Amino acid sequence: MTDADADADRGGRLGLIVPSSNATAEPEFRAFCPESVTVHGARIALESVTVDELDAMSDDAARAAELLGHADVDAVAYACTTGSLIHGPGFDAELEDRLAEAAGVPAVATARSVVRALEALEADRIAVATPYTADLDERERDFLEATGVEVAAIDGRGIAANTAIGELTPEDASGQVLERVGSVDDLDAVFVSCTNYCSLAAIEGLEAELGVPVITSNGATLWDICGAAGFVVDGPGTLFESEQR
């Protein structure tokens, strides 16, 4: 068997860097990846979604990417929304470059993936639902608006413990969007933030109800990393009908 034959037999591999307390990203990725693509996780320490813990977590990301590179993955994702925007615009792109160098393959970071998704959807005015505390909501608003997106509304649940965020359901996400931000006029899209907020399964129902595209942190990251790796993925909602990079 040649090296090329061996590569074909193994299918595709995605490397996923997740906070240690995240129990949602890997199952959501696996649920929507093609059967030929496997997901391989690396965990970095985070218990509470706070500025200090998010900041410390990003320091370990390059080592995690390097170790995923040992598994011969095709691309790497840093699957944490606030962790990839914590230092404002530009940090997300710098983080992608650092991870790509460490892993030796293309890398994406969730905050940048969300921006790419909104650009693909030509979404200029959005509403955002998060599980976060108010200070992180404001950082997220500042980050998104610095990219040129108008955040018409943002609503957070005020949760810091990441295990508690991971207990939220797609029904929780739907209810939060419909009751708190979905009624805002003239929206181009709705964004459900946080890779530990189980919400991919809510997308199609929300889009049918609202009549606008809905993206989630894991959905945007999956769409983006598969584009970077050259894989075709049939995920939920309008975003996955858009051209991947």
Which structural class best describes the helix and strand composition? alpha/beta
Q: Count of DSSP helices?
A: 11
- Radius of gyration, taken over Cα atoms and rounded to an integer in Å: 17 Å
Taken in chain order, the helices and strands follow as HEHEHHEHEHEHEHHEHEH
Taken as a percent bin, the fraction of beta residues is: 15-25%
| Average predicted confidence as pLDDT | 92
User: CATH top level of the largest domain?
Assistant: Alpha Beta
Which stretches are poorly predicted, pLDDT < 50 over at least 5 residues? 1-9
- CATH-defined architecture of the largest domain: 3-Layer(aba) Sandwich
Largest sheet strand order: 2-1-3-4
Straight-line distance between termini: 32 Å
- Kindly report the CATH topology of the largest domain: Rossmann fold
Count of distinct strands: 8
Shape: globular
**Structural domain count:** 2
Described by strand count, sense and barrel closure, the largest sheet is:
4 strands, parallel
How would you describe the overall organization of this protein?
This protein is α/β, with parallel strands linked by helices and 245 residues long. It folds into 2 domains: 3-112 and 219-241, Rossmann fold (3-Layer(aba) Sandwich), CATH 3.40.50; 116-216, Rossmann fold (3-Layer(aba) Sandwich). It is built from 11 helices and 8 strands. The longest helix is centred in the middle third of the chain and has 13 residues, at 91-103. It comes from Natrinema versiforme JCM 10478. Pfam families: Amdase (PF17645).
